[in-house]
Amino acid sequence: MAERIILHVDMDSFFTSIEVKRNPGLKGKPVVVGADPKGGKGRGVVSTCSYEARKYGIRSGMPISKAYSLNPNAVFLTVNMEQYFHVSRRVMEILRGYCEKFQQVSIDEAYLDISDRADDYQAAEEIARRIKAEIRQKEGLTCSIGIGPNKLIAKIASDMEKPDGLTIVRPERVEVFLAPLSVRCIPGVGPKSEKVLKRMGIGTIRALAKADLQELKLVFGKWGYEMQRLARGIDEREVRERGLAKSIGRERTFEEDTNDRGVIMKTLKELAEEVHEDAIKRGYMYRTITLKVRLEDFTTFTRSRTIERHTTSIESLGIIQELIEEFLDSKKIRLLGVRVSNLTRQHDKQKSLVEFKDYP
Ligand SMILES: [Mg+2]
């Protein structure tokens, strides 16, 4: 494969920054965007928070009740998705103008393959600076950019100097750049893989790159091989526009089959919240909501409902609680699933999905 130059652009605490821009009085304050904390009793999680809020240990993905206990005086705002979709759309349009190959990965993140436009890393750096200036000037927002020979390196690099960062990793520096980092910096290495690797005496990417491949394969299977390739900085994935995801869902199997209404409702609520958070993070609105129920005798049912217009409202997932009713007085339930489909990243329903997919 010819040498490539890839950018990863990641908006800095995107939702929060939009809120601060709308209300400059919030500048410099700890701002948390997410579920309603309800005085510490609220459910749901933090979507994003300002860098000031992070100083209190608040993080995205954390339960909102925990964020509240860390700093009850922070400014808590509920998610204003329609607004964020508008801004996201404009930012993505700006980014598309800088490359031939473009891939939006979430509401505030994208890869750009600029190999055709930049002969070397100096030219790439100039492009990155222009991108940052244009986004700042037009939207009043900052982003962090990583530049590297592939998506993996660009992605890790964009996270190095947040906020308003620009990190360039030339091919000859890849090994040195990766070596001291934790294995957790590799996409796909979560807490589970990390734990197993730790037991094998592997904590850094350097150690993973040098580890015995047979041993890795024995423990992780094919993933062991892939993990080591990533640790060596090898990533041949192309930057290319993907179609929209078809659906987003979560399922849970009970340890013991149950017909306890309280347990069932609580589980559905949790599943709905997880699906909702995932949809928001990935920048999707949805129209169809599906419940899946598997009974103790393994018969499986699905029930769907399509609402009038695309939404990101968590309240819409209350439909699940209506759909479950017919199953509550029957046999015990073994598995529950919640799924949303009919997805779009557009705020405006009039603009069809085709526009998104056909973009060059
Ligand atoms: Mg971001």
SSE topology sketch:
Blueprint: E1 6-11, H1 14-22, E2 31-34, E3 46-49, H2 51-54, H3 64-70, E4 75-78, H4 81-96, E5 101-106, E6 109-113, H5 121-139, E7 143-148, H6 151-158, E8 166-168, H7 174-178, H8 191-199, H9 205-210, H10 213-220, H11 222-231, E9 247-258, H12 261-281, E10 286-295, E11 300-311, H13 319-323, E12 333-341, H14 353-357
Parallel strand pairs: 2-4, 7-8
Antiparallel strand pairs: 1-6, 1-7, 2-3, 5-6, 9-12, 10-11, 10-12
Helix pairs in contact: 4-5, 10-11
The protein binds magnesium ion.
Magnesium ion binds at residues 10-11, 14, 108-109.
Keywords:
4-stranded antiparallel β-sheet, alpha+beta, 12 strands, single chain, binds magnesium ion, 22% strand, 360 residues, 5-stranded mixed β-sheet
Structure, described:
By secondary structure, the chain is an alpha+beta fold. It has 14 helices and twelve strands. It has helices spanning about 15-20, 50-55, 65-70, 80-95, 120-140, 150-160, 175-180, 190-200, 205-210, 215-220, 220-230, 260-280, 320-325, 355; strands at about 5-10, 30-35, 45-50, 75-80, 100-105, 110-115, 145-150, 165-170, 245-260, 285-295, 300-310, 335-340. The strands form three sheets. It has a five-stranded mixed beta sheet. A four-stranded antiparallel beta sheet has the order 9-12-10-11. A three-stranded mixed beta sheet has the order 3-2-4. Strand 7, helix 6 (about 150-160) and strand 8 (about 165-170) form a beta-alpha-beta unit. Helix 4 (about 80-95) packs antiparallel against helix 5 and helix 10 (about 215-220) crosses helix 11 (about 220-230). The longest helix is centred in the C-terminal third of the chain and has 21 residues, at about 260-280. The two termini are about 20 Å apart.
